[in-house]
Design brief:
CATH topology: Rossmann fold
Number of domains: 1
Shape: globular
Number of helices: 10
Low-confidence stretches: none
Helix content: 25-40%
Order of helices and strands: EEEHHEHEHEHHHEHEHH
Length: 270
């Protein structure tokens, strides 16, 4: 375990492997709010390292092994700033930011705030916050307050994963003896979720100066809106897009091989 100390009570857990290839980029994985570094290290990270690339996986403040001071608002501004801090502290050369879900927003915010990157990968990130998604954001917090991650999983999983994964994993959910427990309101998870509804999605996509790869899981029934994605992709100057037809939101776990192939192809062309 490596640890970047920010203050006496704040820090970031991380796992960093330098590239083995000459002048190869380092893929920097930016979690969703509910994710951890480990979701990248099962399949995606090892495959990229085998190809000579570097990787950096880390946890936000409030995620496992990344503590935060009581009273700290774990919001998008703080997370985007911490992303820049860890990259600059570790002196990562040619970082490629790979953001999953809202992690792509944090990555984009860091770049637009001045972080020099070799590339930007947005996995199921592109969205507009209208009445429907705003409702879902508020409902997620309420569900966690009532029944914690267990109830959240039982309710949201069929909307976020593709049919093959759902068929294979159905027996792990909605069990008769599930003990639903409210999420601790002092926890990092609650702090992160509570603050994400106020994240700033008014992104100046036209100002992105690096190559961008947009990857969308077409079975994401919460965030994927074909019309919105097409419109936002059209605002990015240097962009390519890959759609994964049979998967949903959590591509590193659900469809690692298509994701790995897309990342390797992107890296080869930087």
């Amino acid at each position: 375990m490596s640890y970047l100390r920010i203050s006496a009570n704040d820090g970031l857990y991380y796992e960093h492997d330098a590239p083995s290839g000459t002048d190869a980029p380092t893929f920097v994985f930016v979690n969703p709010v509910s994710g951890t570094a480990q979701q990248w290290q099962q399949d995606v990270g090892p495959a990229l390292r085998d190809a000579g690339y570097g990787t950096l996986a880390y946890n936000f403040r409030g995620q496992p092994d990344s503590p935060f001071s009581p009273g700290t608002a774990l919001n998008d501004t703080l997370i985007a700033g911490d992303l820049r801090l860890i990259i600059e502290t570790l002196e990562i050369k040619r970082p490629v930011l790979v953001g999953l879900s809202i992690g792509g927003l944090f990555a984009t915010q860091s770049h637009l705030a001045g972080l020099d990157v070799a590339g930007l990968v947005l996995i199921n990130t592109l969205r507009q916050i209208g009445p429907r998604i705003a409702w879902i954001n508020d409902a997620v917090v309420r569900v966690m307050e009532v029944g914690g991650p267990q109830l959240m999983g039982d309710m949201m999983t069929p909307l976020l994963w593709g049919p093959d994964w759902l068929a294979a994993n159905r027996k792990a959910f909605i069990k008769p003896d599930t003990d639903y427990q409210p999420l601790d309101k002092n926890s990092g998870t609650y702090n992160l979720l509570k603050n994400m509804g106020a994240a700033d999605w008014n992104v100046d996509y036209e100002h992105i100066t690096c190559p961008v790869l947009v990857i969308m899981g077409l079975n994401d029934r919460v965030f994927f809106d074909a019309e919105v994605v097409d419109k936002l992709v059209g605002r990015i100057p240097n962009v390519r897009r890959v759609d994964v037809e049979n998967a949903g939101h959590m591509l590193p776990a659900e469809a690692p091989q298509p994701l790995i192939s897309a990342l390797l192809n992107f890296g080869q062309n930087l």
